[in-house]
Amino acid sequence: MLEQHAEALRLFGDRVHAVREDQWGAPTPCTEWTVRDLVNHVTGEQLWIRPLVTEGRTVADVGDALDGDLLGADPAAAWDRAAAASHAAFAEPGALDRTVRLSYGPALGSEYCSELTADCVVHAWDLSRAIGADDRLPDGLVEFSIKEVMPYADGLAASGMFAAPLEIPAGADAQTRLLALLGRAS
Predict the structure, then answer these.
(1) What is the pLDDT of residue 185?
(2) CATH top-level class for 2-135?
């Protein structure tokens, strides 16, 4: 699992480093977000890991400390720091076996790591689309993400944070299936 997480971080990080200066305000498949908003979101997701997993804090304990602009003047460097810290937190002895108190309730650190890995993979596709980069995702990460998303895919649209799932075309490859589950057309 830690290697999958590291690979997802590298994939997203490669896309962050490919963003040209004139692309930070560009739209993304996440209709409410620009490229900068998307990178800020995924960076923020990584910054939550240390306080929740390593420090045993709750969402309420952290409060709004990770709201707003987390990227500053150098978004790629901010991403790199957040990615390194998140992976180090999950790699600490026992981290994946700890109970983490998330906004929706308690979960094992391993479940949280899986969730954030899949999130990073899908957002790497979003970022790739937004900046005109290769949007083909590694097969292993796609399969990992499908397994993560399948159990709760039907309820994602109801959360208001995802588009409704799309019909999966006959004979669709794994990436197309993953994206359709999350309301994205490949």
Answers:
(1) 82
(2) mainly alpha
